[in-house]
Amino acid sequence: MSDIRKRVGRKGTTYQVRYSTKSSKTGYAYKTFATRKEALAFREDSSARSTAAPLSSEIRTVSQGVQKWLDVCEREGRNGREPVTKYTLANYEYRAAIINDYAWSKELHELTKPDIIEFRSWLLKHHSRDVTNKVLTSFHSMVKELVGRAVLAYDMAEGVTVTASSRYDEAVVIPSERDIQNLLSAADRLANSSNKKTAKTWQRYRPMLYLAVDSGMRPQEYLVLASSSLKETGVEVDRALDGGGKEISVTKTRAGRRFINLSEDTLGMVRHYAENHAAQNDYDLVFPTSTGQWQSVRNWRNRGFASACEEAGLMIKVEEDGKTVERPKYKPYDLRHFYASMLIEQRVNLKRIQTLMGHRNIQTTLNVYGHLIERAEATQESRVSVLSCMQRESCGASVASAA
């Protein structure tokens, strides 16, 4: 057992930790710290040391703990969630290999927070901050899983993190309404081209492009949209291409499953293609290839979307390997950002935007689109100063009364 006592003396306020020890005649020892935070951290580690004992005969090493966690992720799902997809499991196995590469000098139940901090230092020395963050997240997930199963007595990894760089650190690229109009007009022209091959290709790409703009779906979602998901007023999103585009799977999270209303024109265009032009396939695809397979994200981006950008004049010059080349101004994913920006402009509430975008938590929505929400709110606010809101006399009246 241990406790913390606040002491005030000549050196100011300090915090004294009394903890159990076998090396003292009284059974207790004392250690003083300048801050309560340091005292709390020491007490946690002291408690861990005094109670450290293997609670499981099967899981003694870090490697065994990591394998147990991987098995749970694959077969059961953590915390009542569904089992992870094959692609996610492959990512977890990659992180597990990094954890196992570290020279752990103690058994799992003997680890304390300083040990995890040393592990973090090793990660930062051998890997990027982004990888370090992901590995620590997985390690902490493993520890929490084992604590919940009474394999470990406490969470020694709590609070040991790094701040990783985020793909949301830079503002997302959002096409203007004019650019979107030009892009859709380009798709119309290509679908009606005198070149039969071009027209046939865009017979499929045109409804795809309209759907992307009108729904905000991710490319890996609309590329494998099922005909059975076309409803009376919109589409149900319930599946997506798994990582690498190797197979069709469920959406990455439950939040990804959602219903999105579409305009009559877009829905009619998509339904017409599915019923009259889509090749026979075994996957109920709306937009299959001529061989009945799903399209790859890369082919759509480099062949279809890039052609529409070129036709619409939405190209920019960039430097690559010392040469100036032209590239599309936007990427297919930017259409998703445009959709979100239109929701914000129409004052759709934040929770609804989160649902339509398929974000697992609202913090993601705020991270990506918070600046747009602030901008939209600012344009609607009347210019009112703080002082004008206060119930007080004007400066002129005050001066007059004083005279």
Q: What does this 3D model show about the protein?
A:
Helices cover 48% and strands 12% of the residues. It has 403 residues and is α+β, with helices and mostly antiparallel strands. It folds into 4 domains: 1-51; 55-165, Tyrosine recombinase, N-terminal domain (DNA polymerase, domain 1); 177-328, Intergrase catalytic core (hpI Integrase, Chain A), CATH 1.10.443; 334-380. The strands form 4 sheets. Strands 1-2-3 form a 3-stranded antiparallel beta sheet, with helices on one face. The protein has a two-stranded antiparallel ribbon with strand order 4-7. Helix 2 (62-75) packs across helix 5 (129-148) and helix 7 (196-215) crosses helix 9 (264-276). The chain is elongated and about 95 Å long.
> Widest sheet: strand order?
1-2-3
Output the helix-strand order. EEEHHHHHHHHEEEEHHEEHHHH
Q: CA-to-CA gap between the ends?
A: 72 Å
For the record, what CATH class of the largest domain applies? Mainly Alpha
Looking at CATH, the homologous superfamily of the largest domain is Intergrase catalytic core
Which architecture name of the largest domain does CATH use?
Answer: Orthogonal Bundle
Strand-residue fraction?
5-15%
Reported by name, the CATH topology of the largest domain is hpI Integrase, Chain A
DSSP summary, beta strand count: 9
Shape: elongated
- Into which percent range does the helicity of residues fall? 40-55%
Q: Kindly state the mean pLDDT as a whole number?
A: 85
